[in-house]
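Incident review: delayed structure delivery

Summary: a single-chain prediction request sat in the queue longer than the usual turnaround. Root cause was a stuck worker, restarted by the on-call engineer. No data loss occurred. The affected request and its eventual output are reproduced below so the record is complete for anyone auditing the incident later.

Affected input:
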Amino acid sequence: MPNPPSILTIAGSDSGGGAGIQADLKTVAMLGGYGLSVITALTAQNSMGVTGIEAPPAAFAALQLTTVLEDFEVAAAKTGMLFSASIIEALAERLVGKKFPLVVDPVCVSQSGHRLMQEDAVQALRERMLPLADLLTPNRPEAELLTGIKISGEGDLREAAARLHGMGAGAVLIKGGHFDESELGQGRMADWLFVPDQEPRVLEQPRVRTENTHGTGCTLSAAIATGLGHGLSLGESIALAQEYLNLALRTGFAPGRGCGPVNHSAPLQQALRGGVAGGVLARLAELMAGQCA
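Output delivered after worker restart:
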C-alpha cells in the first residue's frame, strides 16, 4: 500500500488543542496525510486566551526542520506562528531550494487578541518567508499589517494582493472571515484568490453563524497543504479546504468556557452516520482509496 503524503506543519503549540500544531495535525490526519511538525513556540493557552509563550532557540527550531527533511519526503508544508525574527531567519535558510509547495499562514495575533509575533518578526516575515510562499493566506488584519493598506473595498484587496506579490509571495488568498455581510457588496462568506496574471477569483462558501471559530486559519492552511500534498491543483486544494472548514464550523463545539474550536473530526462523524461528505471531499475519498488499493 502506498504511503500517505507527508505534510509538514511549522507552527506553535496550542495547549488548548484547537489551533496551531494540534489543529494542523488533526486536519492532516483527517484528510489522509501523515503529519510532521516543527514546533516554533509553546503557548499556555485555553479557550479563554493565551497566558504565556515560550519559544525554543532559533537553532533548535532549525534543527527540528533539518532533521525532518533529512528523513522524510515532504509532499507539502505550511507555516503558522513563527514568533521571532531569529526563528524565521533560521527556518528560511533551510527552506530555500525546497522541492515542495509551501503555504504560509502569517499568524500574528490570537483570536483572543494576544500578540503571537514579536515586533521585529513582521519585517523578517516579509523579507524572508513571503518569497518562499507558494500560497499566502492572510486574513484581513494580517493583510493590512503586512501591506500597510486599510482594506475597505475591492480596490484595496487588489492593491494589497499586488503588494504581497511584490514582496515575493506566489498566489495570495485573502480570507473573508473578518469582513461583515454588508462590506464589498458580498452579503456572504467569500475568500479572494489572487494569482499573478489572472483575474481575482471570489471563492464563496455559506456563512456559518457560530462562536466556535478557534483555529479556523490554521485548519484552512493545513487543509490546503494536504490537498497540494495529494497532488491536487491549487484551486482544488482551496476548494477542498473550504468545504472541510465549512463542515467543521457547522459542527463546532465548546469544550471550555470560551470560544470553542471547529470540529476537525466532522467528516469521520458524518461518514459513521452514513452521510455524504460532498463533492470535493468525495474527490479526496477517491484519492485515499487509491492509496489503499
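Verification: The domain at 6-292 is CATH 3.40.1190.20 (UDP-N-acetylmuramoyl-L-alanine:D-glutamate ligase).
Action items: add queue-age alerting; document worker restart procedure.
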